[in-house]
């Protein structure tokens, strides 16, 4: 899902960068009002490193395109959507600079796709279903978050006038739907394990 440099016109890339900067600024403003930040900072660092690794691994798929997991829905459930956007930004920046994945001019667009849109849709769906069924909320929020990211990426790519809606729907949508279901199952297991072994993490205020 990493959009490389050169694919998005600069005027559009600047808009995506501005959106990303505004969201991150809101996060740091809210963060400045919090106390007991040590555990949040440690988790942010650990989850950023894990996201770099998880989204860098290429897993063979029947579509002929290697799968990359996101991990951002997990971060949303543990720390909240704004914190997850920061994790996404740091992970994508690391990948762009050191691994040649994505790009610097398209970093704003990639964060908008995999950070902002994925994080907030995941958070909304998780909040809607959390009090109904914990496992279902994790499962559905992961799926809808990844699908939201896919839709936003399709829109961004359409605005570049480099491809057609039919091609994007036929290639990206079924591919990331499979990824979404797999990651949803994995997240249910991981979140329950974390909350059972470290129950204090479940009580961290979501930002």
What does this structure look like?
This protein has one domain (10-201): Arp2/3 complex 21 kDa subunit ARPC3 (Orthogonal Bundle). By secondary structure, the chain is mainly α. The protein contains 8 helices and no strands. The model has no long low-confidence stretch (mean pLDDT 91).
Tag the structure with descriptive keywords:
207 residues; mainly alpha; Arp2/3 complex 21 kDa subunit ARPC3; 8 helices
Q: How many H/I helical runs? A: 8
> Low-confidence spans: pLDDT under 50, at least 5 residues?
none
What is the succession of H and E elements? HHHHHHHH
Tell me the strand percentage band. under 5%
Our Rg estimate from Cα atoms comes to 16 Å
Secondary-structure class: mainly alpha
Principal-axes geometry comes out as globular
Mean pLDDT comes to 91
Helix content: over 70%
């Amino acid at each position: 899902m990493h959009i490389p440099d050169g694919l998005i016109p600069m005027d559009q890339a600047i808009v995506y960068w501005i959106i990303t900067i505004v969201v991150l600024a809101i996060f740091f403003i809210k963060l400045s009002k919090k106390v007991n930040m040590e555990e949040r900072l440690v988790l942010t660092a650990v989850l950023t490193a894990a996201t770099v690794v998880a989204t860098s691994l290429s897993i063979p798929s029947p579509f002929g395109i290697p799968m990359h997991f996101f991990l951002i829905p997990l971060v949303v459930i543990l720390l909240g959507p704004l914190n997850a956007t920061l994790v996404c930004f740091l992970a994508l920046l690391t990948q762009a600079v050191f691994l040649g994945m994505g790009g610097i001019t398209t970093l704003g667009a990639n964060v908008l796709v995999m950070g902002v849109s994925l994080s907030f849709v995941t958070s909304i769906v998780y909040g809607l279903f959390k009090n109904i069924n914990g496992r279902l909320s994790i499962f559905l929020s992961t799926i809808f978050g990844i699908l939201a990211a896919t839709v936003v990426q399709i829109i961004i790519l359409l605005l570049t006038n480099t491809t057609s809606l039919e091609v994007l729907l036929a290639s990206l949508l079924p591919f990331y739907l499979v990824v979404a279901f797999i990651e949803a199952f994995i997240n249910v297991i991981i979140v329950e394990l974390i909350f059972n072994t470290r129950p204090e993490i479940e009580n961290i205020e979501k930002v």
